[in-house]
Amino acid sequence: MADKKNILTYAGLRQLEEELQNLKVNRRREVAQKIKEAREQGDLSENAEYDAAKEEQREIELRIEEIDKILKNAEVVVEDEVGLDTINIGCFVKILDMEYDEELNYKIVGSTEANSLKGKISNESPVGRALIGAKKDQIIEVETQAGTIRYKILEIQRSN
Questions:
Q1: Which terminus of the chain is more exposed, N or C, with fewer CB under 10 A?
Q2: How far apart, in whole angstroms, are the C-alpha atoms of residue 107 and residue 88?
Q3: What angle do CA 144, 149, 151 make, to 5 degrees?
Q4: In which element (H, E) is residue 105 found?
Q5: Edge-to-edge strand list for the sheet holding 147-158
Q6: Using one digit for the tens of pLDDT, what is the confidence trace for 108-118?
C-alpha cells in the first residue's frame, strides 16, 4: 500500500525542515552530552538523569523518523498558483457562521500543518472538506455531532 501524501504549504515544509535540522544538529548533541554527564556519575541502574536523557533521546529519534517520513511523502502546494475563484489548500478564507453571526478566518492546509488554535484547518476536517471547491458568497453546510452548521464564504485570498 502506498503511503498517504502529506500536503504541505511551502511555509509548512520550511518549518519541518528547520525542526529536523535542529533535532539532528543541536538536540542530538545536547542529549548526548546529558548522557555522557550522567554516565560519569557512576551506577546507571539508579541514575534518574541517565534514564531521563535516554528517554529524551528516544523521543528525538522518533520525531526525526516522523519528520523524515512526512517529508518523504510531501506534496507542496505552490500558493502563488492557487486560484481565487474557489477555495483550495493554501487559501485564506473568511466565512460567516450564520447561526452565531460570527466571522471566522482560516487558512486551509494539509493535515500535517493543521492547528486550529492558529486558524489553520485541515482539508480533511469536516469544515475544511466542505470549504474545498466552494466559491465566494456560497453557503455551505457542515454536518457535526451537534447538527448542521451553515457558513457563508465572504472572502478567498492567497496566503502570501
A1: N
A2: 10
A3: 135
A4: strand 102-109
A5: 120-122, 102-109, 91-97, 147-158, 139-144
A6: 999 889 998 99
